[in-house]
Description:
The structure is a single chain. This protein is α+β, with helices and mostly antiparallel strands. It has ten helices and 20 strands. A five-stranded antiparallel sheet has the order 1-2-5-4-13. A five-stranded antiparallel sheet has the order 3-14-15-12-11. The protein is globular, with a radius of gyration of 21 Å. Helix content is 27%, strand content 24%.
Amino acid sequence: MSTAxxxxxxxxLLRIVPALDGGxxxxxxxxxxxxxxxAKAVADAAERFAGGAIExxxxxxxxxxxxxxxxxxxxxxxxxxxLGPQNAAGDDVRNLMLSPSAGIDRQMLxxxxxxxxxxxxxxxxxxxxxxxxxxxxxxxxxxEALAMLEHPHDLWLSVFERDGERWLAFGLAGCPTDEPAGxxxxxxxxxxxxxxxxxxxxxxxxxxxxxxxxxAEIAREDFLSRLAERVDLHAISGWQRVSSSRTLxxxxxxxxxxxxxxxxxxxxxxxxxxxxxxxxxxxxxxxxDGSLRFTPWQSLLLPNVRHEHVSEVIGALEQLGLLCEAGQxxxxxxxxxxSNGCGKGLADTKDDALQLxxxxxxxxxxxxxxxxxxxxxxxxxxxxxxxxxxxxxxxxDLYFRDAAQPGFGALHARNLTIEAVGALxxxxxxxxxxx
Length: 435
C-alpha cells in the first residue's frame, strides 16, 4: 500500500506525527470496533516499536504514542492485522462515529453498522472524497441509549419514528440534540451522506475544511436548497433527540439480545499499556464474542457477555487496572497528554488528574471533569461540566459549563493549585445553594 500522503498535523495509521514523547500513530476503528486479534496486534506494536503507551481517543479510536525510529515496521504490523484503510489515501476520511452499542443497544431504533460500512467503503475507494479534511466528521445515531450526543460533527444523522415509519433527522455543523435541518427516508440515508459530501467539496474553498467554515459564507438555506436538488428532503418539526445523563459506558448493562450484557471499563485517563489491552482481549475471547468496542468517553466495552459471567469479567477487568464503577472519581476525569508528552502542554495534566482524583475520593465527590494542558482541548471534543485549563505547571484556571458562553464556559477562578481546586469543588458541592 502506497503511503504518499498529503501533509497534515493529524496523525493517522500511515502518517506518524512527532510529539515531545515520540511519534503518534492513530488507528481509526470502524464503529469503534476491533477484534481481539487486532487488539493484540496493537499491543504488540506499542511494545515492540514504541514506549508502550496506547490511548483511547474521544472519537472511539486508538493511538500509539512514543514511537521511535522503526515507524515502517510498526505500520506494516498494523496493516498486516487488517487495521489500515482500503485505500492509502482514504485513511484520513474514515471519520464516521457510531454509538459504541450499535446493534446491541436495547433502545436502538436501527442498527447503524451496515449503513456505516457502506459509507466508509465509498469514501475510502472514491478519489473525490480524499480531498476532505482529516477533521471532517460524520455521526450516525441509531437512537441508542448509549450515545455521545455532545460532539459537534460536520454532518449528523439520527433515526426517529413517525407514523410507524423510520426516518433520519439530519443537521449540519452541530450535534443531534440541535434543531435538525430536515429529514429523509431511512432508505435514502446513504444517498444523503454522499450528496452532502459531494456538495461540500464543490462549494468549499481549500481553506474551508469544515462545514462550519462553509456555512459562515454560504447561507444554510442555500446549501439545503442545493441539496434538495439531489435528494428528497422533508421538513421536520417537533422532534428532539433526548440524551441520557446516565454513565452507560461504565459497568454492566443488558443488551437487546436476551441474557447478554456489555461491560464498560475505563482505562485510567484513557491510557492502556500492552498488558492491559492483551488482558482485555483475552477476556473478550473467553467470555464475549472476541471483539472490543472503544467509546468517545475514552473507554471500552466488552460486548456479549452472558449474565452469569458478568461479575467475573468485572473482577478481571479491575485486576487489570481498569475502572468499572461510575462512582470512582478517576473514571469520570479526562486529561490530555500534557507537558510530559506535548510541547504545547503547560502542565503535567495526567499526573495532576491523578492527584485530583485522589482528593475527590477523599472528599467523597464525583464529577465529570476535563484537564486541558492548553486551549486546544485535544482530549475533549465537547464542553465538560467542569474544565481546568493549565496556565503553568500545577496551576489551572477553573471553568464551569455555561450554555450562554462559548468555549469552556464561565471562568470561575484563576491560577489554582490542584489542592485549591479540590477544596473549592468540595465546598461548592456541599453548599446548599448548589443542592
